[in-house]
Amino acid sequence: MRFRRSTPVLTLSKNLRRATSVLWSTLREIFDESAYARFLQRQNIGSSKHAYAAFLRENLRQRERRPRCC
Amino acid sequence: MSKPVSAFVWLAVAVAGALSVATIALHRGEQISALWLVVAALCSYALGYRFYSKFIAAKVLALDALRATPAERLENGRDFVRTNKWVVFGHHFAAIAGPGPLVGPVLAAQFGYLPGTLWILAGAVFGGCVQDFVILLFSIRRDGKSLTEMAKSEIGRLGGFVAYVAVISIIVILLGVAALIVVNALKASPWGTFTIAMTIPIALFMGLYLRRIRPGKVLESSVLGFVLVLLAIWGGQWASHTPSVGRYFTLTAPTLAILIIIYGFAASALPVWLLLAPRDYLSTFVKLGTIALLALGITALRPTLHMPALTRFIDGTGPVFAGSLFPFAFVTIACGAISGFHSLISSGTTPKLISRETETRMVGYGAMAAESMVAIMAVIAACVLQPGTYFSINSPAGIVGAAPEAATATISSWGFPVTAADMHTLAQAVGEQTLFNRTGGAPAFAVGMAHIFAHSIGGQGLMAIWYHFAIMFEALFILTVLDAGTRVGRFMVQDALGHIYEPLGRTSWYPSILANSALIVAAWGYFLWQGVKDPLGGINSLWPLFGIANQLLATVALCVATTIIIKMGRARYAAVTLGPLLWLVAVTFSASYYKVFDPNPRSGFLAHARQLASSVARTGPNSAATARLIFNDRLDAAVTGVLIAMVAMILFESTAEWVRVLAGRKQAVVRETPFVPTRFAAEEQA
């Protein structure tokens, strides 16, 4: 009985956690934090001033040519 | 959900939508709640998404979940990255949502709330969402190719050339108009000017913070930047109340125009990380937050629309811009209904992130529906104002008179009562010296938004803060478009000039950077200056020109899409893109014809030039200012002529290709990347 009652609560909590996680991932993607994390992983280095400068250099061409919509 | 329950739910959605649209369309002479617009929009998008986009996905495009996308096949962790569909949706929405869906609907509100609302709903469901969806899919099936590349490979070299000219035209005209909107919002406004001026050091600080103090912590620096911007809004109030400071920020329109031109040049030539990237992050952060806040405010307040469903200005005599309901309502509202610019995003970053073909429906169709909802909110923000207030803000001095009493008398004589005292009280409430003659849409939207926020959060005491928050939000949006657009335009010019003289194409050669930045800034700066000096406010001439350029790009996109659909052997379904294409052709041709040849000097460029020339002939020697106005009219007519010639060329080229394929004179070759099964087929089938 107790298990039955807690199921919807668990489902809700699981869905909320999932929604929060998706929202957080979306924000990280929009704000290029995920791209930086992928860069660090690909280069196998830790975050630093030099690493971020290298990331910016690598993404320069793509970012410079990205239009912002009207 | 079982089938009968599902059928019942969708029937209920259809009934609610029909009831709401009927309420919007049929009520005359009485005010309605803005909630009807919200319900009509939500039901229309839901039905369009559930049924129309599903039909397109299944029958026209035959989306294949088992086909590997470029994000999977070419995954490199940099440009091509398999990404969660909700994340791509948010990313795509953030890229397509700009100031356009906020400004266009506000300007078109001069016809009343009905035409704009119906066009936004129908245009999005049957046009804009479809365009974004199909271009996204076709780009995915071509390894993420851009619209220009697809036009070249599917239609021919002429198609590629027209797409290139369309993109350059739209960038130049858009930037000129966007800068003019900022100028009109900030002229004689020390509070607004101070706030926006402060966003430049804030963005520079964010750039340094990201690079030197907390590398890569973009969200953190954006939150910090947002807090600083809020402080700048508060500081703007102090600046406006302190005469010794305020006078430095009380600027005329020409001074602001010059400053924006200098800013645009600097932003194009400075390193990206220093100004462009942080401003972009800050703008996106404010944009997403404000749109969410506005949606909540409208839902909580459920404001009443004071603007009538239709105004007398559907006959083309409106003060905001000249031109009758057809075709001008349909070029004035481009973003929010159908925007060619979106096809650049749908064939840019987004196709490189999609994991499954089936996700293009949600991302392409769904994100455009969300942007269309933003346009509906802009209609609401404009129409909650008393019509007299709306027209006082949006009418140029050349139409209603420069003195407050003259302006209010003219507007009241149209049947929209307003007094100079009312406008003075409102200006004081929002912390401005005057709200008359603030053409461009941004100030009217800001007053409407402040009205909604002040009634739901904080009360009337915060009206001035909300108004300047809205102005800051729009100006930040627009300056970001200006930064990025100038740079993109510069690259396009560099790419083209590089074919003539190789060093000019080098993006790292500083003389080339400076020369090409100057070229592109001079191009949009000219339109800006023209708008600032125009006695009719500039928006009257330039916004329709921008709408025509934007719809030209949409025409290119829909021509590409129709060509591909026919080549895929699905000509019987070509109407899904051919329908909106024909509508756009009718709209752009008519609007261009009226803008060039209309005998009414307020609408037709050539008639206006003739009127000025004859007045000079009557009154004496030609002044430099009049000569410039005459030249500007002729230049605008020539630009419109070139744009429409481009539409005709791409249509002719596309039609010839369709006839060749349909008549069997040419083998239909779809230039798609060959089918490769996804490695995740098992996961997909499960």
What does this structure look like?
The complex is a heterodimer of chains A (70) and B (686). With 70 residues, chain A is mainly alpha-helical. Chain A has one domain (2-64). Chain A is 80% helix and 0% strand. Chain A contains three helices and no strands. Chain A has helices at 2-30, 33-43, 49-64. Chain A is elongated, with a radius of gyration of 19 Å. Chain B folds into two domains: 9-188 and 251-662, Up-down Bundle (Amino acid/polyamine transporter I), CATH 1.20.1740.10; 189-250, no CATH class. Chain B has helices at 3-26, 35-60, 70-73, 85-96, 100-108, 113-140, 147-154, 157-186, 190-213, 218-241, 243-246, 253-269, 276-301, 325-332, 342-346, 359-383, 387-394, 397-400, 404-413, 420-429, 442-456, 463-498, 510-533, 539-567, 575-597, 605-619, 624-662, 681-685, and strands spanning 32-33, 304-305. Chain B has a two-stranded antiparallel ribbon. Chain B is globular. The mean pLDDT of chain B is 91. The chains are: A mainly alpha (70), B mainly alpha (686). At the A-B interface, helix 1, helix 2 and helix 3 of A face helix 4, helix 8, helix 9, helix 10 and helix 13 of B.
Question: Can you lay out the helices and strands and say which pair or pack?
Answer:
The complex is a heterodimer of chains A (70) and B (686).
Chain A (H helix, E strand, L loop, with lengths): L1 H29 L2 H11 L5 H16 L6
Chain B lengths: L2 H24 L5 E2 L1 H26 L9 H4 L11 H12 L3 H9 L4 H28 L6 H8 L2 H30 L3 H24 L4 H24 L1 H4 L6 H17 L6 H26 L2 E2 L19 H8 L9 H5 L12 H25 L3 H8 L2 H4 L3 H10 L6 H10 L12 H15 L6 H36 L11 H24 L5 H29 L7 H23 L7 H15 L4 H39 L18 H5 L1
Antiparallel strand pairs in B: 1-2
Helix pairs in contact in B: 1-2, 2-6, 2-16, 4-16, 5-16, 6-16, 6-24, 6-25, 7-8, 7-24, 8-12, 8-22, 8-23, 8-24, 8-27, 9-10, 9-13, 9-22, 10-13, 10-22, 12-22, 12-23, 13-21, 13-22, 14-24, 14-25, 16-21, 21-22, 22-23, 24-25, 24-27, 25-27, 26-27
